[in-house]
Amino acid sequence: MYQDLALYIDGEFIKGGDRREQDVINPATQEVLGKLPHATRADLDRALAAAQRAFESWKKTSPLERSRILRRVGELTRERAREIGRNITLDQGKPLAEAVGEVMICAEHADWHAEECRRIYGRVIPPRQPNVRQIVVREPIGVCAAFTPWNFPFNQAIRKIVSALGAGCTLILKGPEDSPSAVVALAQLFHDAGLPPGVLNIVWGVPGEISTYLIESPIVRKISFTGSVPVGKQLAALAGAHMKRMTMELGGHSPVLVFDDADIEPAAEMLARFKLRNAGQVCVSPTRFYVQEKAYDKFLARFTEVIGSIKVGNGLEDGTQMGPLAHERRVLSMEQFLDDASQRGGKVVAGGARLGDKGYFFAPTVVTDLPDDSRLMTDEPFGPVAPVTRFKDTAEVLRRANSLPYGLASYVFTNSLKTATEVSNGLEAGMVNINHFGMALAETPFGGIKDSGIGSEGGQETFDGYLVTKFITQV
């Protein structure tokens, strides 16, 4: 059975009435899985009022109590991971193992924030005069609004929830209407863990309408958004017009730098498999492959071999390594990228076309011989298409890697400590991975620079966007 879909407002699951409903589609079969209710204006007003009321008590709650609830969420997440993961595969498309893995790793986010929320410390500043006391305290900012994407529906939502709630804030979250089951499941997890009514509220609807209404409300003090750069800039402008704090985790176009002295074949295999995780629909997916000249042929041969061996199919079928793209529009986008590549002299050496006549499947694809100003080298494909190109030396590849306005993730493969240090210092990115993929852990900060965002989630920075600093001086 697929997840029963609903709004979650003031501790109640709500659906029916005269609310507009939206079909939720299985991207592997194009079958309708369920009906998702959209929030009315009255629903949004109720969510805002509930969050504001709940904040007055939640901000005073002991960190021990917040920790207890987050720990319980972690326990329940592990217990229900298989069921939640299956529903993610149904409405988002990724293979079942990936979906269950997404849920299981997120239990760690609940656990870690349960510990870290007990360590939101202030400080004492030594005074200039003996009769003065100077202290700094950190307080929750207030009611927050969060907007999360469809590619990792459980992961992206729980990161924002545990950060906001652990800091003592209350939250209204609008998840992805295309893959909503994970967010409804999250509401049930927190509900069953004993979260007081109004602390977490879940709404659905037309994204632009919901975001505008919530951001413009004087009740909302902070917003958090994960999604595309264009939408992020629109929301940032709206938040800025109302002087609202914001955290933005936006898109990237992650460069991969493979040097001659790297372990070439293991690197090629590792990158090929990581590239096709979630069918390439990952904001930190490796997307621009720069390979040094002497290693190029060896890398391309192994990379293409692995890409071509990946089994594509329904995520619920045994052996599936890559599922469908999440939407029909993603398939059309891949075709447009390849049309441009063809016009720019690119050579497709693997894949290159839609698969089958049912579902949104696209073949894992490798393209070579592209100029740096082609669309695949300048725009994030957000799909299973990988452009591979040559470079000569470190100065050249750094210039090319840093040439775009994005700065989220980056990858370096080399066995030279000198090169690793030089390149990690030189790359304009919020995250640099050297010889492996080590991001998105609960205890490490996740975020970008330049057009790829503002602020971080995870690590000791995780609560920064949800806290205000108050200075108290007393004689």
How is the CATH topology of the largest domain named? Aldehyde Dehydrogenase, Chain A, domain 1
- What's the CATH first level of the largest domain? Alpha Beta
Number of domains: 2
| Integer average pLDDT | 97
Write the CATH homologous superfamily of the largest domain.
Aldehyde Dehydrogenase, Chain A, domain 1
* Helix share, percent: 25-40%
How much is the radius of gyration in Å? 23 Å
Describe the model:
With 475 residues, the chain is of the alpha/beta class. It has 2 domains: 7-250 and 451-474, Aldehyde Dehydrogenase, Chain A, domain 1, CATH 3.40.605; 254-441, 3-Layer(aba) Sandwich (Aldehyde Dehydrogenase, Chain A, domain 2), CATH 3.40.309. The protein is 39% helix and 22% strand. It has 13 helices and 22 strands. Helix 2 (63-92) packs antiparallel against helix 4 (153-167), helix 2 runs antiparallel to helix 5 and helix 8 (264-275) packs across helix 9. The protein is globular, with a radius of gyration of 23 Å. The mean pLDDT is 97.
